[in-house]
Amino acid sequence: MPGLSSVHVPPPGAARRRIQRMDRDYGTAVRMIRLRRARTANGADPGEQPGTREYQHRWVVRGHWRDQPYPSLGIVRPLWISPYIAGPEGLPLIGGEKVMVLAR
C-alpha cells in the first residue's frame, strides 16, 4: 500500500512510566503506523514548499480575544482583535450576513 509506513518509537516519558508501573515485563516500544502523508490541495507535500498556499476567496474573521505577552513587563494581558477581512485583495468575498433564528 503506497504511503504506508511503520516504525517503532519510544512512548512519551509519562506513558512509559505508567506502563512500567503496571507491568515491568510488558515492554514500552510503541509501533506507529502512518497511513498516508499530509498533502495540500494541489498535491504538494507541505514540508517541501513552505508558504505556497493559494487562496481562491476572501473571508471575514470574527473579532476575538488574544493573549498578548509583554515580555518587558513579564505579564500577559487579553487584547481584543477587531473583525477584519482576510485573503488576497481582488478575490470574491465568501459568506454573507450572519443570520440567527430563534424558532419555537
- What is the CA-CA span between the terminal residues? 52 Å
**Helix/strand/pairing category:** mainly beta
* Biggest sheet details: 2 strands, antiparallel
> What is the quaternary state of this protein?
single chain
- Using only CA atoms, what is the Rg? 24 Å
Overall 3D shape: extended
Estimated share of beta-strand residues: 25-35%
SS field, number of helical segments? 1
Instruction: List the strand order in the largest sheet.
Output: 1-2
Give helix and strand order, one letter per element, not per position. EHEEEEE
Ranges where pLDDT stays below 50 over 5 or more residues in a row are none
Give average pLDDT, whole number: 80
Number of E strands:
6
Share of residues in helices: under 10%
Summarize the structure.
This protein is mostly beta strands.
Question: Care to describe what's here?
Answer:
Helix content is 10%, strand content 29%. With 104 residues, it is mainly beta. It has a two-stranded antiparallel sheet. The chain has a two-stranded antiparallel sheet with strand order 3-6. The longest helix has 10 residues. The model has no long low-confidence stretch (mean pLDDT 80).
Write the layout of secondary structure elements.
Elements: E1 5-9, H1 13-22, E2 30-34, E3 59-61, E4 64-70, E5 75-81, E6 84-86
Antiparallel strand pairs: 1-2, 3-6, 4-5
